[in-house]
Design goal:
This protein is of the alpha+beta class. 30% of the residues lie in helices and 40% in strands. The mean pLDDT is 79.
């Protein structure tokens, strides 16, 4: 086989492989750093980007986009209250090792129209599929009930959100979604995962990160508590004693 023939064969193989390449997501966020100051009322994030399809833009019209924004995970205990003899008292409880402090899903269509439940569970595409990592010995049915209670509670607090139709796709390749962060969000690192889905299969995914930090006087107090915890503790005790002594002097009877 001469050189020209080999080049032609290699070119044909390269073109065939290029045609089979999966799309690539290029995500971005409007704010990668959110500062929580006194009087913070929340923030509205714009998550946007593009789907680059090496096989040609003609296939992009079949894509659905799902954006999942998750806050730092923490352990949480959920207690159930029962009315006993006219008094509300704590009954059963369940512990979860890694419940996200914030969880929001925005999609171009309802999730059930995009993927099946198995795929949704793998990628956590919805509040029904959050991996809470329960701990302890408890019946699966009771555990599911406590998990549903936790999700419902945080939905009411605005910390867990779902917005089917919240992603807009334009020009077949550009997308954008808006997610509201309430004023009660936990500080820390947030991850925004974006998924490009076609025919019920996740073809591409990408992650962007957002930092939520305390700023101003509150931020300085947090920094001091973390860096000089012993001195901070002594200062807090001294301040409490001083305030108590001052209150006693002010309200002492003549």
């Amino acid at each position: 086989m001469n050189r020209a023939a080999r080049v032609a064969v290699l070119l044909g193989v390269w073109l065939a492989l290029s045609a089979q390449r999966e799309p690539v997501l290029v995500p971005a966020v409007s704010q990668s750093l959110i500062e929580v100051r006194q009087g913070f009322t929340g923030a509205r994030l714009l998550l946007y980007g593009a789907v680059i399809d090496p096989a040609g833009a003609g296939r992009a019209e079949d894509y659905d986009i799902v954006v999942v924004l998750k806050g730092p995970a923490d352990s949480v205990r959920i207690r159930e209250k029962e009315r006993l003899a006219g008094i509300w008292a704590n009954a059963g409880s369940s512990d979860f090792r890694s419940a996200p402090s914030f969880f929001a899903v925005a999609s171009s269509r309802p999730i059930e129209e995009i993927v099946d439940q198995r795929t949704a569970a793998i990628y956590e595409l919805g509040t029904d599929f959050i991996q809470l990592s329960p701990s302890g010995q408890i019946e699966p049915e009771e555990q599911a009930r406590f998990a549903q209670g936790l999700v419902a509670l945080r939905k009411r607090q605005g910390l867990y959100q779902e917005n089917p139709g919240g992603v807009r796709i334009s020009e077949k390749v550009l997308y954008q979604a808006r997610i509201n962060l309430p004023s009660t969000v936990t500080t820390g690192r947030y991850t925004a995962e974006t998924f490009a889905i076609a025919r019920g299969r996740v073809l591409a995914s990408a992650t962007a990160r957002i930092e939520v930090v305390k700023a101003g006087l509150e931020g300085q107090v947090v920094t001091a508590a973390q860096r000089w915890s012993f001195l901070y503790g002594l200062g807090a005790i001294a301040l409490s004693l001083g305030m108590g002594w001052l209150a006693g002097r002010l309200f002492a009877r003549p």
